[in-house]
Give the backbone structure.
Amino acid sequence: MSLVEMHNIHKTFGAVKALDGVDLQIDAGEVVGLVGDNAAGKSTLMKVLSGAYTADTGTVHTNGKVEMVYQDLALADNLDVTANIYMGREKLAGPFLDNKGMEGEVRKLINRLRIDIADIRQLVATLSGGQRQAVAVGRAMAFDAQLVILDEPTASLSPEAAEHVLDLIRTLKGHGIAVILINHRTDEVKRVADRMVTMRHGKIISDAPVGAPTCDGLSH
Amino acid sequence: MRRIIALAAINIAFFALMGALSPVFVGWPNIAVLLSNMAFESIALAGLTLLLVARLFDLSIDASVAMSGVICGKLLFYDWPVVLAIAIPLVLGMLVGWVNGQLVMRMKINALIATLGTCWVMAGIAAGLTKSASTYGFPHAFEVLGQTRIFGVHIFVYYAVVIVGALALVLARTKFGRHIYIMGGNPEAGRLFGVRVDQLGVKLFVLMGLLAALIGIVLAARLDAAAPNVDDGMTMRVIAAAVIGGCSLGGGKGNVLAGLLGLLLLNMMTNAMVILGVNPYWQKSWTGAVLLLALVLDVSSGKVHVPMWHKENRNV
């Protein structure tokens, strides 16, 4: 059975058909690029998958935990790396925060994901764009997600920082974690994705392995 | 931590300087007076620090203190049982906090304006109930709450130590406190990750209302009188202390201990001016000057968030 099975998903906002009968299947450990113009329905589809929106009709089946990394990363700049990774899900030791326990887990996590952050007590405000993205991905991974949705993770990053994010996606795949990568930069998607799904006007118009002629033709 | 060390060093230096200028200043009787003077403000400071860290604000503290004291005094004056005379203003204080919370968190009214409104309502109630005259002559069972001394120190100093210590611990070490920092740093992110930001804000206003009511009641017990203008200016002094202690009005920054050191500095300055015979009318100017100095130093060191429009104005 697949990790995610979405079948015949419809979602409307007033008169606008955001999703029009979408079927999508994701397997464990698969990296899927989700591309399309603005208002194609990519973000709406992912919000339905992550549970932020409810579909008007259709079914969503998931066989694992889904975590979404938002485009603005949703980080608190005034807090350190550990506090951001555990945001809203803090570990307790009795009535107090288990800071040692959380820091220990975060150290293991950044080693596992090969995230380049020297000091996890560093405020997130002082991190580079790539490191901030890594913290947001790390947060998704800290709670045993089987699928991570990344919304435009490289949009505001330098080429070098974007490269680190792509490496991070490869690392996730290496750990058997499925990734959906929403991205306008199809060249980046092709470098890491197994499959590219193209959306237009709320429908999937192409779903093919990266490198297949159909996919290349439609994504341009 | 650097802020705490710096403020501690400034306080020690000031204490030593004043000790050299006047031995009275460093004597135990004066220290006991200093602690008594700080006690009520430190309770308000602890509550306000939680609000400021959460990017909230409360201008109604003075009025809540006054109204609670007056209502307590009036109930005692009409021979209500002491327990009820204490419980009713405490509940009313929490109710005022809840109203502030609803106005700010649910109706999205700016905290400055909303709490200014409730401030005036409560100040009016306190003045109206007393016609601006004090109510006095309370039962002994009530007076002991504010007039008992233990080892030469007023009992309300011990209340302050317990309350301030507990709130400092809550802010620094608990999930509740962590969520306050998240709310101040990025409330939208907090919402996405399950922090109930609106509920949290209401709780903080209710806590502030409860603390203000407690101050009003104990102050009435200490003075054996309840007056509508019993501690005018407390809110502003406490805000000044919190900002000197590193709280940002933009939220997400600050802690109770640093604010307490800021409050200690302000109180030592006031106390020193009294001992040195400085005209009391100048005291507010000194408080303002210290506050401005702290802000200038913070902005110069880049530790204070300057809103974009200010940055643009700098270039004009």
